[in-house]
């Protein structure tokens, strides 16, 4: 028996593949999973076509909302989030996301204040050594939220190709011949660096360049590429994109926090479906330093 992919069904019906996923989600078209991929049997496709042919013409079609749905995303800068925003914009999903990369903490605060629908966060709680959930539970006591694991990613020291200063770890940041470039206050990466500095018992005044701030990973890595700093604390992907060396120090959890309101319910559910049901996950394989083992997993819900 022939087995079809959602892309093949979309091509035969001359519709968007995201419409096919919407049909599967609603139960209009039965599908099964092979690993993380959806598949449809030929007999089920024929049944669907026959059922549609029996409907009056005015009732045919997938009945997916034709309005453009928009969401505001605030929080940490991340290449995976950038790809997700571009993917949703370019695939004819009917959904648009406006990102504001202002740091994990400020992203959570915007979500708390109702100025955003989604927060992208990676905040380490020094006491529990747990990411994100301690902050989320403290802020969102009564608000309905859902927390989704996007990926784990490697954080460490970004240095010039060949590591000319022979930097090996956090303690080297206090050397007189080493200048760093930092991230802005409220950034999850800065939280993490501060945690490492405290663990190493290094005074901030001993870290040359600590006050020099950049607002995203690529901007920080660019300082290393230009030679205006010797080291930045950041993600492996930024180092790879600029051909720099990377010293891994930890793997952190990067999550999306959705705050539900009557106005955004349809949009948020559509976005979750796009993350969990489409082939977007495959694009993570092209990004160095990411682990998508728990991609799309719901890790916390507060109704």
Spell out the blueprint of helices and strands.
Blueprint: E1 3-4, H1 6-13, H2 17-26, E2 32-34, E3 37-41, H3 42-53, E4 69-75, H4 79-90, E5 95-101, H5 104-113, E6 118-121, E7 124-125, E8 130-131, H6 133-139, E9 145-159, E10 180-183, H7 188-199, E11 213-214, H8 217-226, E12 231-235, H9 236-241, E13 245-259, H10 265-277, E14 290-291, E15 297-302
CATH architecture of the largest domain, by name, is 3-Layer(aba) Sandwich
Uncertain parts: 56-67
User: What fraction of the residues are assigned to beta strands by DSSP?
Assistant: 25-35%
For this structure, the CATH topology of the largest domain is: D-Maltodextrin-Binding Protein, domain 2
Offer a quick outline of the entry.
This protein is 33% helix and 27% strand. It has 303 residues and is of the alpha/beta class. The strands form three sheets. Strands 4, 5, 6, 9, 10, 11, 12, 13, 14 and 15 form a ten-stranded mixed beta sheet that branches. Strands 1-3-2 form a three-stranded antiparallel beta sheet.
Report on the structure:
This protein has 303 residues and is α/β, with parallel strands linked by helices. The chain is built from 10 helices and 15 strands. Strand 7 and strand 8 form a beta hairpin. Helix 1 crosses helix 2. The longest helix is centred in the last third of the chain and has 13 residues, at 265-277. It is elongated and about 80 Å long. The chain starts with a strand and ends with a strand. Mean pLDDT is 90; it is low at 56-67.
